[in-house]
Amino acid sequence: MCCEWLLSKAKPSDSAAIASLFALSWTSPFTRLQFGNVDAQALSTTMAPFIEQQIKQQNRQFVVIRQPATDEVVAVAQWTLPVAKALSEDEETPEENNERQQFEDEAYRKKLPDSSNKDLILEFTVGLRELKQQVLQGRQHFLLENVATHPDFRGRGFARRLVEWVFPQADVLNVLVYLDTASDNPAMRLYQKLGFEEKGRHTIQDLSKFVTSQELEVHGASNDHTHVAFIRYPNCVS
């Protein structure tokens, strides 16, 4: 019956369902340190308009699995597609890039909920960006942004299929597939089985600089957090 659970590209009308899946999956202790005990429904409502915009972007691809009987979206992967680097005389200098990035980070900070831990979120965001830059060194790649399955439908291999979806395209284009994930995420085993290789780590040490010891205890979080960068190299296509 697995063959009935087909993969397809998401439509803008799927944005609310996708937002709900993401909200239900963002429950780790570290996520709660960043955003607090956010109500899943409220978070989903906030995210849905942004996801609808992203679905319409050419360099984004949301791939979903639907329940055959109801057409309900029960699993999703969010991909950023490789874009050829344009040759331009107006290419940014390192100083200009740094200035633009600081401006964008500040704009992002202002959009974050007042109840969130903005300092921790920015520390995490900048750290992951630097890790990605160090690992990829400007190489073209598919980027796995998010993958989520509804709790009622986990254990059916949907995440594996959603990740594998991009492999034939990456092989034809001869480009990398990149993702990062928390070091304590059980999905690391899946990524390694699929041929991803660990290429770097970013650790935020001493989280007590950003949160109280009581918050660490309440959320069951350790005093440091590590994210791991993975790369899948393309297979040669004859």
TrEMBL record:
CDD domains named among the record's database cross-references: NAT_SF
GO molecular function: acyltransferase activity, transferring groups other than amino-acyl groups
Signal peptide: none
Keyword GTP-binding: no
Family matches, as InterPro entries: Acyl_CoA_acyltransferase, GNAT_dom, Trichothecene_AcTrans
Residue ranges of the TM segments: none
Ranges of biased composition (kind: Basic and acidic residues): 97-109
Pfam families: Acetyltransf_7 (PF13508)
Record's keyword terms, sorted: Acyltransferase, Transferase
Official protein name in the record: Acyl-CoA N-acyltransferase
